[in-house]
Amino acid sequence: MTNKALMTLVSFLGRARQDSKTGYRTANYRFANGAIHSTPFFGLALREVIAPARLVLLGTAGSMWDVLIEQFATEGEDEELRLKLIEAATENAVDGSLLDAVTPLVERALGVPCLLRLIDYGRDAEGQARILDSIAESVSEGHVSIDLTHGFRHLAAIGALSAFFLERVRGLTIEGIYYGALDMTENGETPVLRLDGLLNIERWLDALSRFDQNGDYGLFAPLLCADGVAPDKVQCLLDAAFFERTLNLSDARRRILTFLPVLGEPLTGVSALFRSALAKRLEWVRGAGLMAYQRRLAGFYLHQGDYVRAAILGFEAVITRECDRRKYGTQDHRNDRKPAEEAFEAEIRTGDQPRAVGDAYWMLKNLRNALAHGNPSALEKVRQIIASPERLPAELQRAMDRVLN
């Protein structure tokens, strides 16, 4: 359940003049529960429905701050201040100090703390970034709902992006993104749309991008869970991520194989849109043995600059191949790796392996030992390679290619 004590509603104020007193024309906004709220300012209706503890109202120097204040002021109240605001709004000259002065009037009318804040017009990239910064500074903690109904049309796009920005950068919880769809009015009722799906799409895009950078299967777990995938299947991805990080690749692969049938069936929600993209990233495990899995991950970590994991997994791929070649033990060769390593090294020493393969093996093993143990190698050549950001990835790649091919 949402903590109302930490709920903030962020709404935008535009500059339409369809009505001389209210600016916007009054609409009958219909919410999902069937309730109808009549108001020219959708944010006020939304405030009644979600009952936030705080309201943030954002607008430009030319927004209808004057007609908004007229909604709250009683006749004769703060007349001089209201006239000053009306004059400033007419000249597109409303400033922050003037909004601070009228804020108590709004708070008395609504009964909740309010923040009235000017934002940039967002005419260029810098101005749009300033809007995001203003929104982020206006909400520092808790849960947030965003109303995209009023304001310039391009502010709706910026507002939707701000939801993702607040969630990703500030760690806030986005409860909802709302839009009063005046152009969809029928029979005198205007539907209220929830645009949370936009945020879910951005979450999926972010998860895919981050997965391509770090290979963490667990990134998809909360997204799939939110769209109704069975918890035990979602847990398979979390387990696979853990096992892979601890280099238990056999169990990681088994958990992914257990999860894959989920992607063979239709998914619900936004997850359906990304089912094929996720399947493409996981499908490779169906035909891959342990050696292929280790080699793939070694290449992945090498590309990401994680040279310790790359060297460890590259070396382990060699030993797994030798276990397979000698038909040692079980599928994961847990108890047969040392004998396979010793047998292959004996072949190198007796000349039963090409010299290029032997040299590549010793280079890979020496790099693995130095990187994994964090101690300087006894070999000057290895120390020089590890000290060079250009040579290290090149030598690792060359050694893995030669010994594994």
TrEMBL record:
It comes from the Bacteria. InterPro entries: CRISPR-assoc_prot_DxTHG_CS, CRISPR-assoc_prot_TM1812. This is CRISPR-associated protein, TM1812 family. The lineage of its organism: Bacteria, Pseudomonadati, Pseudomonadota, Gammaproteobacteria, Chromatiales.
